[in-house]
Amino acid sequence: MTDSMLALIAEELGRIAADKGEALPALTPDSVFLDGGLPIDSLDLATLLVVLEQRTGQDPFRAGFRHFTTLGELAALYAVPA
User: Fold this and answer.
1) Predicted local confidence at residue 16, as pLDDT
2) pLDDT at 81
3) Spelled out in words, what is the top-level CATH class assigned to the domain 2-77?
C-alpha cells in the first residue's frame, strides 16, 4: 500500500502546486513537506490531509496528531491502523 499511497500523495501535491502556479521537484519517499523545497505551506499540507482522508476513507489522525516529516512517513501512516 505504501507505493500506491506515495503515488496518491504525489498526485495530490501536484494538484496543489499547479493550483498555485508552482512546479513540484522530483518527489521521493524522503522528500520533506515543510521547509524541504516543496512549494507548499502548512495550509496546503492540511488540505492534502483532508483530500487523502476523502480519497482513502482513512484518518490516521483520528486519535490525535501523529508525527511525520517526509512523504514516506505520511504514506506509512496509512499502511497501519491508527
Assistant:
1) 95
2) 58
3) mainly alpha
* The C-alpha cell that represents 32 in the structure block: 520533506
- Amino acid at position 31, single letter: S
pLDDT, tens digit, 9 for 90 and up, residues 29-81:
999 999 888 999 999 999 999 999 999 999 998 888 889 999 999 999 988 65
CA–CA dist 36, 41 (Å, integer): 10
Every domain of the chain and the residues it spans: 2-77
Residues with Cβ within 8 Å of residue 17, at least 6 apart in sequence:
23, 24, 38, 39, 40
DSSP one-letter code for 41: -
Q: Would you say 6 and 76 are in contact if contact means Cβ atoms under 8 Å apart?
A: no
Extended beta strands in 9-79, E state:
none
pTM for this entry: 0.87
